[in-house]
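Lab notes, practical 5.
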Amino acid sequence: IERLLLNDDGRARGALGTVFKLMTLEELRPLLPQIVEAVRTPSPSGVMFSNGIRLAGLDFLAAHRITEGMELCILVTEIDKWGKQDRILRCMKALQQYGGAARTVLPQLRDLEGRLRAHREARNLAKQIQACVDTIEAIEGARTSPEVRTVAEVMGSKPRR
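Output from the prediction step:
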């Protein structure tokens, strides 16, 4: 799994997307740094398929409230790259899972909204702009802030039995 996470080919990495759904946090805990790196750094080849593992990784990080996932949701939007429409929507969906805990990324999210509105393709990005606005409103209106943990905190925790 570790070797595939860091494979240069996007299609090879993408094959791991279902692994995140089949394995628990405890099972994948030793690989958290590699998962974060696979999300942060797109594969150098197979660009057409590189979003798969990145978005699956974001979903995994969000489901387990891993702090690093919040900033990665903003980073992965990459509004000037191919595949941005689906990628932005998926990033906003993942970010909403953090609820009020995502208040720390509101400035970056507002900046993203502004960049989307000013984008040369803004007319074709109306759905993505609305998703960004909805995400901001959901975070601002959240009444609870789920507990979030950093990768380091999860890595240092003992496995549950």
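Observations recorded by the TA: The chain has a mean pLDDT of 93. The two ends are 23 Å apart (CA to CA).
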